[in-house]
Amino acid sequence: MRPFRYERPATAARAVAAAGGEAHFLAGGTTMVDLMKLDVMRPERLLDITQLEDGRYDFIDWDGKSLRIGALTAMATLADDDEVRRRVPMLSDALWLAASPQIRKAARIGGNVLQRTRCAYFRDTSYAQCNKREPGSGCAALDGGVTRGHAVLGTSSACIATYPGDFAQSLIALDAVVEILGKDGPRAVRFAELHRQPHSRPDIETTLEEGDLIVAFSIPDADFPRSRYLKVRDRESYAYALASTAGALRMDGDVVADIRIALGGVATVPWRAREAEEMLKGSSISEDGLERAAEAAFAGASTTEDNAYKVDLGKRTMVRTFLELARMEG
């Protein structure tokens, strides 16, 4: 790890003013410190934001069916919140399945949605070819690499690295909004607009501007008791998704009144399956109908020999999620 300067701004405004260039925010540090040890990230200054304004950004607030969550809320705090578990279990599921208990206590949800890929060619600097780490250098994964864990949706000729997070799938499914404090003041963007697909510039991963600080997430309609996050992985704990589905369902009798589908482990960014949602709205839930919707969700998949299995696995994960939700009360 290279030398760096540690600072602790007292307010969000001061943190934003100090950020930019080689100065990076630090909260739980579960991704940043990891990548610093690997020499992938080399910040000259770290701005510890965990004590900003005495916990002003650490909260879980319900207002009717809307939910607002401070970005410095610990993963464990949100996962264990009784109201969240009762009213929108998908959020709690995604956090419970995301990491070890120690990491859930340290990591904050603002940093969680910005975690970087687990692609071995990005994280190992002995590989010179990585467009995400060194723009224009090429992609070792595509140039004869092992791609079993890589993405099949949202890929480009420059990068097929998978977005690794779980919580983000629930946020995109719930039409969350990201509240940001930037150098020009506060603003809000749809969570669906936060992450960028790689295209020709995989190194530009989000639409955040220099110095932007995520301060909260708001979900206008978070009351989805019939929801869940299903994650398929190589082992039962502390492993990243090979395929996952964040699913939420509202029924009007036997007919789908509202449905939300987001896919994880298979895409370069948090992935909303809107075509599949449209196919299922207004119909009854059946295995045949879900299989047709899953086909639509993966119609644009681009695979390698190693990761082609993810298409079938992703479809089966999506179908299973909604067959189980259909059997739930709510």
TrEMBL record:
Keywords: FAD, Flavoprotein. It comes from the Bacteria. PROSITE patterns: FAD_PCMH. Residues 1-224 form the FAD-binding PCMH-type domain. SMART domains: CO_deh_flav_C. InterPro entries: CO_DH_flav_C, CO_DH_flav_C_dom_sf, Diverse_Substr_Oxidored, FAD-bd_PCMH, FAD-bd_PCMH-like_sf, FAD-bd_PCMH_sub1, FAD-bd_PCMH_sub2, Mopterin_DH_FAD-bd. One of its GO terms (molecular function) is oxidoreductase activity. SUPFAM superfamilies: CO dehydrogenase flavoprotein C-terminal domain-like, FAD-binding/transporter-associated domain-like. This is Xanthine dehydrogenase family protein subunit M.
